[in-house]
Design brief:
This protein is mainly alpha-helical. It is built from 19 helices and 6 strands. Strands 1-2 form a two-stranded antiparallel sheet. Strands 3-4 form a two-stranded parallel sheet. The protein is elongated and about 100 Å long.
């Protein structure tokens, strides 16, 4: 007999039992469910809503169940539908009549809202810690490569010279924003919904603030309807995960390109690469490719929950059972991707000589040649045209700008002088961009310090 079966004359169909049950995935909330029940029972006893002796018996039994749950020793039943009914069934089997008092003043609606909020808070902290680990790894690369010159790209075409440190700092800025988004999601998750009941609260004199205190929440939810119907905090988590996975995917795309024979900017460690079953020479960036692929899966989890929630009237609807699989799947995949990507980057070897040689090609110093002429008094638009003609000349002659003699340069503008060679050297092009946010070593040092301070505050 179901715990809710009093109103029914007929048992649910076996196919419905299997379809309706969520224990296959929400058993993951066992620890959170027990913690919530301990706090609820403690409060019920303190408020004399149930006998203090019963409350003590319940909390003692739940404490033992918590140890068993953490050790993976609890067995659950599909017939009991979900983690909440399973826990109540186990409790009642163990302590009898007192166990039936646990559910006084609460509903599975506010119970599940509580469980997922507790889990979400932990998941957010896990994500932040993994993001911090990746940022630390990238900061280390940046510190070691302040003068490692490489080409910067737009449209995947060589544009201007930068440094590997500057490039790493761009990714760090994105990852810092990922943590900021998680902090916002945590703030919204940090509201205690128990006491909302099914949707309209309860007539029992619950001390909601006491439960909040016992569970370590910052505040209680303000509206009983919203308390059970809100899944915004999960959507925010999934959104933050999706944006962060997009960042990882973009980064992976660069790693894949850089590891190719055409670029040769990076050598991935053997431990983070795979081979081919037929081609003996292959060393494939499968880790980066798989992270890029899993990004779509996390996007799908976000879209699944957005779609499930989009047409729901207040308050709780069974559709909301779909929140957990999407949430768990996104969290698991994001965490695996973050930890694996961090390991890949920490063990990768960057080929500074290849990067520098590449930066010297593709006319990445053309803008600096134009700026040189501007500093000599030529309007920028005219300088742009002069250097454009110079580049075309070099392409036809298969030369770089620095290969041209001063006499050749003067054919395009008399303003060119001997100092042009130093002005448009690749390292000078980088060092002269010494403004906040720029690639000059001093600017990047300041950016690294700012990032470390920012990270410490998050």
């Amino acid at each position: 007999m179901k715990l809710w079966g009093g109103r029914f004359e007929k048992a649910t169909d076996h196919s419905v039992d299997d379809f309706h049950s969520s224990i296959s995935f929400d058993q993951r909330l066992a620890e959170q469910d027990i913690l919530g029940s301990i706090a609820h029972a403690t409060m019920l006893g303190e408020q004399n809503i149930i006998p203090k002796a019963d409350a003590d018996q319940i909390t003692s039994a739940l404490a033992l169940m918590l140890e068993e749950a953490r050790a993976g020793k609890l067995t659950f039943s599909v017939d009991a539908e979900d983690i909440h009914m399973n826990m109540e069934t186990i409790l009642t089997e163990r302590i009898g009549e007192a166990g039936k008092r646990l559910h006084t003043g609460r509903s599975r609606n506010d119970q599940v809202a509580l469980d997922v909020r507790i889990y979400a808070k932990t998941a957010i902290e896990d994500a932040k810690n993994n993001l911090r680990a990746l940022i630390d790894a990238l900061l280390s690369i940046a510190k070691d490569n302040l003068v490692t010159v490489m080409p910067g790209y737009t449209h995947l075409q060589k544009a201007q010279p930068i440094t590997l440190a500057h490039h790493m700092m761009a990714w760090i800025e994105m990852l810092l924003r990922d943590i900021e988004r998680l902090n916002g999601a945590y703030e919204r998750a940090d509201s205690m919904p128990l006491g909302s009941g099914a949707l309209a609260g309860t007539t029992y004199p619950l001390n909601r603030d006491r439960v909040r205190e016992l569970l370590g929440f910052a505040k209680i939810t303000n509206n009983s309807l919203d308390g059970v119907a809100d899944r915004d905090f999960l959507l925010e988590y999934l959104s933050a995960a999706s944006i962060s996975m997009m960042h990882l995917s973009r980064f992976c795309e660069e790693v894949i390109l850089w590891a190719s024979a055409e670029f040769q900017f990076i050598e991935l460690d053997d431990g983070f690469s795979t081979g081919s079953s037929i081609m003996p020479q292959k060393k494939n960036p499968d880790v980066a490719e798989l992270i890029r692929g899993k990004t779509g899966r996390v996007y799908g989890d976000l879209m699944a929950l957005l779609t499930a929630m989009k047409g729901l009237p207040l308050a709780y609807n069974k559709d909301m059972q779909e929140d957990k699989e999407a949430f768990f799947d996104a969290h698991d995949n994001w965490m695996k991707c973050l930890t694996t990507f961090t390991g890949m980057m920490k063990t990768a070897r960057f080929r500074a000589e290849k990067m520098a040689r590449s930066a010297e090609g593709g006319f990445t110093n053309a803008t600096d040649a134009a700026d040189y002429l501007v500093k000599k008094g030529l309007p920028f638009r005219e300088a742009h045209e002069v250097v454009g003609k110079l580049v075309l000349h070099c392409i036809k002659e298969n030369k770089a700008l620095l290969d041209l003699t001063l006499a050749e340069l003067k054919e395009f503008s008399p303003l060119f002088a001997e100092d042009v060679y130093e002005a448009i050297s690749i390292l000078t092009c980088v060092k002269e961009r010494n403004i906040p946010g720029g690639p000059a070593p001093e600017a990047v040092k300041a950016a690294i310090a700012n990032a470390e301070e920012h990270l410490a505050r998050l």
